[in-house]
Amino acid sequence: MTHRIAILGASGYTGAELVRLIATHPGMHIVALSADRKAGMAMAEVFPFLRHLDLPRLQKIDEIDFANVDLCFCALPHATTQEVVAKLPRNLKIVDLSADFRLRDPGEYEKWYGQPHTAVDLQAEAVYGLTEFYRDEIRSARLVAGTGCNAATGQFALRPLIAAACIDLDDILIDLKAGVSGAGRSLKEMLLHAELSGGTHTYSAGGKHRHLGEFDQEFSRIAGRPVRVQFTPHLLPMNRGILATVYVKGDAKIVHQVLEKAYESEPFLQVLPFGSLPSTRDIAGSNFCHLGVIGDRVPGRAVVVAVLDNLTKGSSGQAIQNANLMLGLDETTGLMLAPIFP
Amino acid sequence: MTHRIAILGASGYTGAELVRLIATHPGMHIVALSADRKAGMAMAEVFPFLRHLDLPRLQKIDEIDFANVDLCFCALPHATTQEVVAKLPRNLKIVDLSADFRLRDPGEYEKWYGQPHTAVDLQAEAVYGLTEFYRDEIRSARLVAGTGCNAATGQFALRPLIAAACIDLDDILIDLKAGVSGAGRSLKEMLLHAELSGGTHTYSAGGKHRHLGEFDQEFSRIAGRPVRVQFTPHLLPMNRGILATVYVKGDAKIVHQVLEKAYESEPFLQVLPFGSLPSTRDIAGSNFCHLGVIGDRVPGRAVVVAVLDNLTKGSSGQAIQNANLMLGLDETTGLMLAPIFP
Amino acid sequence: MTHRIAILGASGYTGAELVRLIATHPGMHIVALSADRKAGMAMAEVFPFLRHLDLPRLQKIDEIDFANVDLCFCALPHATTQEVVAKLPRNLKIVDLSADFRLRDPGEYEKWYGQPHTAVDLQAEAVYGLTEFYRDEIRSARLVAGTGCNAATGQFALRPLIAAACIDLDDILIDLKAGVSGAGRSLKEMLLHAELSGGTHTYSAGGKHRHLGEFDQEFSRIAGRPVRVQFTPHLLPMNRGILATVYVKGDAKIVHQVLEKAYESEPFLQVLPFGSLPSTRDIAGSNFCHLGVIGDRVPGRAVVVAVLDNLTKGSSGQAIQNANLMLGLDETTGLMLAPIFP
Amino acid sequence: MTHRIAILGASGYTGAELVRLIATHPGMHIVALSADRKAGMAMAEVFPFLRHLDLPRLQKIDEIDFANVDLCFCALPHATTQEVVAKLPRNLKIVDLSADFRLRDPGEYEKWYGQPHTAVDLQAEAVYGLTEFYRDEIRSARLVAGTGCNAATGQFALRPLIAAACIDLDDILIDLKAGVSGAGRSLKEMLLHAELSGGTHTYSAGGKHRHLGEFDQEFSRIAGRPVRVQFTPHLLPMNRGILATVYVKGDAKIVHQVLEKAYESEPFLQVLPFGSLPSTRDIAGSNFCHLGVIGDRVPGRAVVVAVLDNLTKGSSGQAIQNANLMLGLDETTGLMLAPIFP
């Protein structure tokens, strides 16, 4: 028996990635797909790469009969999500891929997203979806809030180090390089091939990127006191992948040992041998995160590099990993696809 | 029970693609990997994207105990393959990805590959591996010769049309655009990122490309008389994918009907509605081939466009499809992975 | 003394390319730039790559004092151009980069552009701007209509062959590969980096591309009877450059001789030795067009390959070449910039 | 009268870039080109993008008559350069683009390049070629040592700040993103299109990159005490361009003011308004360097971003800028070419 899945917001990249992964998932099948402006269209019209699949037509959300749905993925834009989720049946399991339920504190939400939260009770109920660190809560959660893709990358590099208190908490710097699919299928001049290919630039630099809200919440919680990292994202001329170069003050060998120990049983988090650093080309299309550590020539400083695919481990793959737990399936079900290279 | 697989030449792109696909194949497991110059290395050193897999170390071919192998994929360079295969146990099932056994006529082999064939008996024994057209022979074959990736693309567009005699056999033109991974992991100036990205050019133009040998053999066999197509390949700044624009003289609607009819039961060959043409972005990483037909404004002329991934449907995916048949498995086993997009 | 230049529609790629080229042109200086929706902005805000230049602010067209302008480039969208040009002073020299004045026959204009022409007298007055073939008319023209970038590429390959009657006029096929900047800075999903990079597909296939109007007009005029070519454009994951693979029936050596002879004194048209074919990487950012010819293995058939940069020789460079003639300057002034590679 | 120029090592990317720039330089003409392994070939065979130029054939170095040369550019590999330069006439003006004469201290040279220097007297004579900071010495120099491209980028961001003592010298971090042409036209697996496009990774991380020798030498000299920065380079899927994200501890507004003041008269160094950060797409193919400054949310920390084209401002453009000074020409001669975009 496979579980019945609905995907709201199936016309964006994370929605399509969910369909791609569920296509070979033995424990899930798709019973409903929504896309308000494209309701009535076949998925193959919106995403021809999915034409070999037998999929339901796109619907409006209120046309979906949720009585026949076991779990619903929400891949809707930020802010609209909270209204939609508030109207869904209270017994429906939900994995949300938007930013709406990531921050527990309504004040922080308003600070980073520029408007008050309209579903504060749901915000309190939601479990933060970084699977490797919230497994137990996720297993019994009704509503799981998928993390930001950049936020996930930085946390995989830093959480064990902060927990082990082996680095200086006041001097953490994340220089992040992100592929363009993280920005979604939106029509922005900056995202045109002619503008982006062959160039790179920062965005939301200087402490303005919203994923800082997640870093602040999570790192401060682990440390038991406020932690404020520096974070500069860059947009790169590639489609998939995030590489976070994380600069810390601490002993590099110890940093490596802490990460190796923390992730030794994790199926998706691979720590490379000391001194080896990973490449985004090696995780594309997969749910794996590769991490590496090297010491700097300046004594007492270390560099941690983490890579993952923003659409898979950074959003839709993570979402399925969480859904697996919520449905009582093995956490890795359907997610052991090898990366694609070249 | 899963079948025991060896891969010879595992350090190239087609070898790595075989490993990628077998990683989630329920009926195969890898027991041996060879790479002469890299013998002794772990596969993860040669291809870090495969580091999550538990794979045997690379060996020299003569270190492999073929008594424990059910089927062997050969992904070795052209010309060396025939010597290697000649020394393998006579009862071993072999799927060869090189060009060595594609041409039945030793004279044609020598003409296109510039040297006499050294294993003429094997050449005669080999079955041409274009699965959809040689299923029965492949099922009972011991040695299957995988097709050229360009040759496969052109044949999917043309074979049914030639068989149906609905086009002019003396005026067939294949203008082909190919991604760079088809050239392999070889160190050539032309294949450097700085040389290729942002540019395009022809190669082996004017009737010099070796895959013409396959076109000639197959098309002439179907037609019952010599057929000599025009074929101009172009190298494109992309990694995976082939797009063949095939110009024929014939009625476009009939051409479309013939293709639709020919492929209506094929799991991997998808014919688009009349007037729609496919894109390589929609088949990357998958075993699917999309085909489209449109009429030209010049009456009596049609354009057929076929796309596939050169590393998957064009070589390693095709090889597994053939191996599935040879091992008595369902032909699609392990191959229904959705394309990856974006 | 340098000539005073205005550019209407300076916020698009061809407008920016005009500014780039004029920046080091010794006989021109820019006195006015228009961009209706961005009026009031500095050019450096719209195109930061031009920030080192001292340029006038963007204005609305009706704010420009054309009494102080010697020559005006119009880089406005199709259809709006004819209205704008009709209102400009009758004594102003104009080089138009839109499609509005390329077709002499109002019926052909309406057929290809879907609406009646509103400035038929100007349409009759305009000289077709393919410099190498209309030099004398351009020198004395008031209004020159720049050609389509694809149309220019195909014509450089074919005009001398049609004039020399050395090929079959009823079997000409242009398979064209174009970079994405030809589509302009418009926000279309198809032009996003995530959609286009790593893939290729046809567009306006089957005889629907508007540049066919130019091919029909020009080739028929040269031949003295109707000529209808086949033309299939493809979009490639690169920014600049067009490669046209032109298939003709004729003797390849003669074809090569005819082209070599026709272009022997041309500064921008470079015919490669027989058998050599050009690459788009070798003309990027320049006003050069490289041409090559090879014979096919099918006797009596030849392949001509022409490459140029769509933004330079295909539009803005061509426009300046024409303006040079109209202003009595040497035709190559400011245009001998070497291509940029890699 | 134009100056007679020789280029040694003309078959690499920096050699070709020198030819590209000199092609439109009014004060220089090329009289000799060397490339040992390709001696006898025409430059158009090695670099078809230069085929429109009338250039001398490639020669071996000892075939060149240096009596007819006013200035010689050396674009030879590291280590071989010192032997070649030692044999050149003592009165010949030389701009070297290799690393051989960048470090004044023979011990530092040996430390970073792994072998003793064989021309220590020339090493002492050479002037460090960062034009904006060594103008007077360069003007009267016989031998100028071009800087590393990464080293130039970092220094443009940092030199004025160190000189002004407005940042913490013990906590400077350079996270650098570099295009692939900086690695030259060498055949390395890592530089293949299939390996690099669509991915990013670090190289020479952890304090191993040789350009650190230049940073150490120059920053320590300015500060009057040892300065040891952190430096992590990343390779990006683009051909031209370097973006250095430089993290400093200091007041961002003051940092911006210091840079603005330092570069207010510099023709090639453009400081953006406070809070604006530059993109590599805006300097490709040009001799410009764009710099921007933003404050971090963590008080007392600033981010400086500098971009330049590694082949132009980072090597060959810089070399010509230096040569202009050495030849008594205006420093900007031939170098005011606008960047190419898109």
General description of the model:
- The structure is a homotetramer of 342-residue chains.
- Chain A is an alpha/beta fold and 342 residues long.
- Chain A has 2 domains: 159 residues, 3-Layer(aba) Sandwich (Rossmann fold); 160 residues, Dihydrodipicolinate Reductase, domain 2.
- Chain A is 30% helix and 20% strand.
- A 7-stranded parallel sheet of chain A has the order 3-2-1-4-5-7-6. In chain A, strands 9-10-8-11-14-13-12 form a 7-stranded mixed sheet.
- In chain A, helix 2 links the parallel strand 2 and strand 3.
- In chain A, helix 1 packs across helix 11, helix 6 runs parallel beside helix 11 and helix 7 runs parallel beside helix 9.
- The radius of gyration of chain A is 19 Å and the shape is globular.
- The two termini of chain A are 36 Å apart.
- Chains A and D meet through strand 8, helix 8, strand 9, strand 10 and strand 11 of A and strand 8, helix 8, strand 9, strand 10 and strand 11 of D.
